[in-house]
């Protein structure tokens, strides 16, 4: 539970469910696809173990009959991609909810970019319009998360993406197409996992937090010494051979790019490496240029990562952003699920986050140093860590998703999922809330004016942060003077 001072205590209704695996391993989205005022269901499918382009990777869509019974329907275009996330918004402003579906990985072909999709809703049938709106989206990268957010404040939902070996990518919605934006941070590539938004500096526009791999890992990278992956089917056996390199100190006292994989691992992948590096010593001295010659690199995929820190992305206007790393406590492990909320009821947005990754390679070992974290915001874009004793927020497993659900008791419950472990619940009781608004299906954002003259912008999502979706309920607090809600068509209404 969480009391009025913002401290959490463990709810006694901690329990295990098979649904944990569902939310950990695929994107799930509830939304009203056919405008009949009930929630339909989209399931993203796929796994690296499945052969590429296999029919089992086809996504599934279910219509709700209004009584909570779901029937699978043939409303989707063909999709054989191993997917990651699905997020909904009315990006063409025609009165129904359209979709972005992110592609995660191509089986036996890492790090080849899989297909991602823009699906336009045509009276309950979804049409792939990726080529029409933004052809590059089809192979933009290994997408991990997405957010429909109006970052340029023109009233249209733009698209923001995170991914592995990718920058945080901003795509502006022009009304008829999407276009990549030069943001000032487009060269900050990382192993980005997740996104959450909030007006963290109270200036009336949306800022973002992007979860990354963190610094407590053997995979080191910086702009001066980027981590590199080179991949190609070098032995022509039908699967991609990929090698990751990080800068390390060599015998000659200089820093060079050396392979992360052991000789045994590389030889098991490419047998010709046994002859090329007959001893462990010869392999231990081998740099990236020794392992991948210029001839071998022809036709290969070469990607770099230079920023591994979970970061705050400040919106400075005109499509430009500044990236700042979050405090050290947020860098202890990979960050996945996040929620932005005024945890301590001081009028400023804070951040709850969970993480860890138990599925890393043996060389790296488990990334399990994270116990969950509450970062207290100061309303100016800076954050400081709260101890577990101060916050009471504690999630120490292989945690992935986070969502806020509204209960029949008129309170918010924060849910954190842990892979193959318990579902953890924390409730929040904010004494400043005077009533709750049931959002309409097409509500997109709200502009809030406070009694003290300050302002804040909030957005309402169908899917936010890593593989998660929260309730569409909105609180009205005592300190608020005026709230104006805008829908996807740009129509406004005042609710206070």
Distance between the termini: 29 Å
Beta fraction? 35-45%
Whole-number mean pLDDT: 92
Outline:
globular
Q: In which range does the helix fraction lie?
A: under 10%
Rg calculated over all Cα atoms: 23 Å
Please provide a written account of the structure.
The model is unreliable at 1-6 and 8-24 (pLDDT under 50). The chain has eight helices and 34 strands. Helices cover 8% and strands 40% of the residues. Strands 9, 10, 11, 12 and 13 form a five-stranded antiparallel sheet that branches. It has a four-stranded antiparallel sheet with strand order 1-2-3-4, with no helix packed on it. Strands 5-6-7-8 form a four-stranded antiparallel sheet. It has 496 residues and is mostly beta strands.
Please sum up the structure shown:
By secondary structure, the chain is mostly beta strands. The chain has eight helices and 34 strands. Strands 9, 10, 11, 12 and 13 form a five-stranded antiparallel beta sheet that branches. A four-stranded antiparallel beta sheet has the order 1-2-3-4, with no helix packed on it. Strands 5-6-7-8 form a four-stranded antiparallel beta sheet.
């Amino acid at each position: 539970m969480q009391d009025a001072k913002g401290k959490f205590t463990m709810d006694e209704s901690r329990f295990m469910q098979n649904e944990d695996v569902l939310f950990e391993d695929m994107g799930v989205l509830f939304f009203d696809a056919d405008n009949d005022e009930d929630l339909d269901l989209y399931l993203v499918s796929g796994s690296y173990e499945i052969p590429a382009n296999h029919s089992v990777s086809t996504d599934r869509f279910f219509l709700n009959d209004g009584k909570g019974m779901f029937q699978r329907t043939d409303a989707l275009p063909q999709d054989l991609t191993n997917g990651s996330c699905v997020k909904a918004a009315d990006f063409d402003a025609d009165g129904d909810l359209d979709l972005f579906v992110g592609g995660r990985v191509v089986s036996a072909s890492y790090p080849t970019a899989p297909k991602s999709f823009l699906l336009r809703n045509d009276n309950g049938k979804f049409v792939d319009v990726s080529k029409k709106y933004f052809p590059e989206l089809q192979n933009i990268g290994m997408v991990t998360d997405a957010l429909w957010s109006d970052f340029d404040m023109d009233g249209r939902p733009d698209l923001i993406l995170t991914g592995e070996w990718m920058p945080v990518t901003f795509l502006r919605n022009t009304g008829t197409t999407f276009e990549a934006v030069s943001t000032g941070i487009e060269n900050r590539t990382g192993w980005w996992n997740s996104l959450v938004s909030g007006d963290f500096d109270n200036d009336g526009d949306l800022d973002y937090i992007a979860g990354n791999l963190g610094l407590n890992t053997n995979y080191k990278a910086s702009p001066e010494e980027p981590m590199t992956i080179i991949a190609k089917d070098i032995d022509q056996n039908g699967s991609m051979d990929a090698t990751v390199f990080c800068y390390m100190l060599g015998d000659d006292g200089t820093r060079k790019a050396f392979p992360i994989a052991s000789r045994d691992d590389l030889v098991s992948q490419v047998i010709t490496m046994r002859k090329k590096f007959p001893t462990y010593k010869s392999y231990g001295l081998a740099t990236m240029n020794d392992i991948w010659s210029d001839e071998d690199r022809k036709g290969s995929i070469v990607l770099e990562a230079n920023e591994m820190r979970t970061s705050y992305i400040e919106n400075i206007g005109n499509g430009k952003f500044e990236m700042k790393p979050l405090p050290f406590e947020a860098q202890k492990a990979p960050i996945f699920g996040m929620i932005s909320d005024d945890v301590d009821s001081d009028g400023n947005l804070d951040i709850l986050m969970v993480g860890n990754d138990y599925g890393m390679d043996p060389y790296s070992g488990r990334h399990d140093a994270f116990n969950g974290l509450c970062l207290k915001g100061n309303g100016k874009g800076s954050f400081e860590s709260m101890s577990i004793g101060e916050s009471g927020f504690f999630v120490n497993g292989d945690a992935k998703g986070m969502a806020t659900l509204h209960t029949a008791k008129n309170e918010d419950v924060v849910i954190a999922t842990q892979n193959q472990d318990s579902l953890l619940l924390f409730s929040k009781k904010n004494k400043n809330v005077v009533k709750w608004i049931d959002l309409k299906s097409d509500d997109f954002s709200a502009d809030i004016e406070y009694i003290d003259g300050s302002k804040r912008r909030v957005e309402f999502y169908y899917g936010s942060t890593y593989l998660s979706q929260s309730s569409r309920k909105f609180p009205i607090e005592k300190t608020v003077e005026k709230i104006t809600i805008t829908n996807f068509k740009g129509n406004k209404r005042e609710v206070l």
